[in-house]
Specification:
about 25% strand, alpha+beta, globular, 12 helices, 20 strands, 7-stranded mixed sheet
């Protein structure tokens, strides 16, 4: 039976009315909830806010390890340095390496564009930070429902978003209701915020229904393969940050790696591949396993143990591709809308800030007793924020590299090293993307087969064991 047939047979669903429902308990959704309650409680009010999280707990679907700019955290919790916030180690050293198959070249810091400056940033466990944010939200009266995936957007008769419904539970393999069957619940809200991450399944529906990408560039995506290792004590270097370019990526493919040292002997490493590659024989997973065998990466991992693995889609962002942020009854925040700053390889502080900017608009609308309206104050807040300035500053970065590594390095150097040296704040030209990633793919018979080395089970692994 289809979900609709199950509803007709076993319904109606129970419902719950709240001020705001947020879909997704990542850093964007939690920052939005926290900011709303902070703002409301400063005025002697308390809002009813529900956050839905499909994982078993907030942070369950977040693989540890990120370098984050604490700017948004400073605004959300000005006193976090005197709290138990799990903000890891401050960046102590960093290098950018250009790899060849067996060697490498370290790019002098004086020649690096400012987007690679991580001074004052923190190497954190993102899953730990997410759990901490969830505890802060709950202490403010936010209700978090883990283990409940939003499966349907609800609309009123005027076509405005009026909430979401969770999925049915207790279905057999055949899709039929078992004796454990339970209908999903309707969460009816004055406003609904989608914070599902890149290409969230409900966010995609809302974007299409309200044509939020009209007049925008096609979005650009990447896949990030990530692992968490426990390394030997002599290899541990908390606060060390390494980024790599070059091998094993062909010149016509955008990609690169990172290696971040967390406290307690943990190292998170990953490899990112742009999804506009032409050769269908390419495997981002296999490329990451091959990259780990490079001497500068392997020497960190030898003697250690892999304790976690994951992968996620990455929205490369850019203001040129960002959809309209609001629609009747709701808003998009975080990677759902593409707030990542790909040039800085950072999306945490931008996701948090987007949630906070949306929260300010929500509190204002609710104070005026508005519901299911268009939150025009949110995009206005964004345009007047440091977030808009930061993303605009780096709007061409990814698009230059899409034209090739040499042109990317040259123009990035001009825009983010030479121009600042000359006192120019930003380029006055804007690049645009013409077609979606998948359109670059060519037929397999036209492209060379890639022969990947077999995994050794020590440094590199197969898909099944991952």
């Amino acid at each position: 039976m289809t979900p609709r047939e199950l509803l007709q047979s076993h319904g109606p669903r129970e419902s719950m009315e709240v001020d705001v429902v947020i879909v997704g308990a990542g850093v964007a959704g939690l920052s939005c909830a926290i900011r709303m309650q902070q703002q409301a409680q400063s005025k002697g009010q308390t809002l009813s806010i529900v956050v839905l999280e499909k994982g078993s707990e907030p942070g369950a679907h977040v693989l540890s390890g990120a370098v984050i700019d604490p700017r948004a955290m400073d605004e959300l919790f000005p006193d976090w340095r005197n709290s138990d916030a799990p903000m890891g180690a401050e960046v102590a050293s960093e290098d950018v390496l250009m790899l060849t198959e067996q060697g490498h070249q370290t790019i002098p810091h004086a020649l690096l564009p400012r987007n690679f400056d991580n001074h004052g940033c923190r190497v954190v466990s993102l899953s730990d930070l997410t759990r901490w944010l969830a505890s802060q939200a709950e202490s403010l009266g936010v209700e978090i429902f883990p283990g409940f995936a939003a499966s349907e957007v609800l609309y009123n008769e005027a076509g405005q978003v009026m909430g979401v419904a969770t999925g049915h539970m207790g279905l057999g393999k055949d899709g039929q209701a078992t004796d454990q069957f339970q209908l999903g619940m309707e969460l009816l809200a004055k406003y609904t915020v989608f914070a599902e991450g890149t290409r969230g399944h409900l966010g995609k529906q809302v974007i299409e229904r309200f044509d939020l990408t009209q007049g925008k560039d096609p979005s650009s995506y990447a896949i990030g393969i990530k692992e968490l290792w426990q390394v030997t004590p002599d290899k541990a270097d908390p606060g060390r940050v390494v980024h790599t370019g070059g091998w094993p990526m062909p010149k016509d493919v955008f990609g690169g790696g990172f290696l971040y040292h967390l406290p307690n002997g943990l190292v998170t490493l990953g490899f990112v591949v742009g999804l506009d590659y032409a050769n269908p024989w390419m495997s981002p997973f296999e490329e990451m396993q091959r990259w780990k065998q490079h001497p500068v990466i392997r020497q960190v991992l030898e003697g250690g143990k892999r304790i976690g693995y994951g992968a996620r889609a990455i929205n490369n962002g850019t203001p040129q591709a960002m959809p309209k942020l609001v629609f009747p009854g709701g808003a998009l925040i975080g990677c759902e809308a593409g707030f990542m700053n790909a040039a800085r390889i950072k999306g945490t502080h931008t996701a948090m800030k987007s949630g906070m900017l949306c929260a300010d608009a929500l509190v204002e609308a609710l104070a005026q007793d508005r519901a299911h309206d268009v939150l025009e104050a949110y995009p206005q807040n964004y345009q007047n924020s440091w977030l808009a300035q930061e993303l605009d500053q780096y709007r061409n970065f990814k698009l230059w590299f899409k034209k090739g590594p040499l042109l990317g390095q040259l123009m990035t150097g001009i825009e983010h090293w030479l121009m600042p040296k000359l006192g120019m704040k930003r380029p006055w030209w804007t690049l645009h993307r013409k077609q979606a990633d998948h359109l670059y793919l060519k037929p397999a018979q036209q492209m060379p087969v890639i022969d990947y080395p077999k995994p050794d089970g020590v440094i590199s692994f197969d898909r099944l064991s991952s």
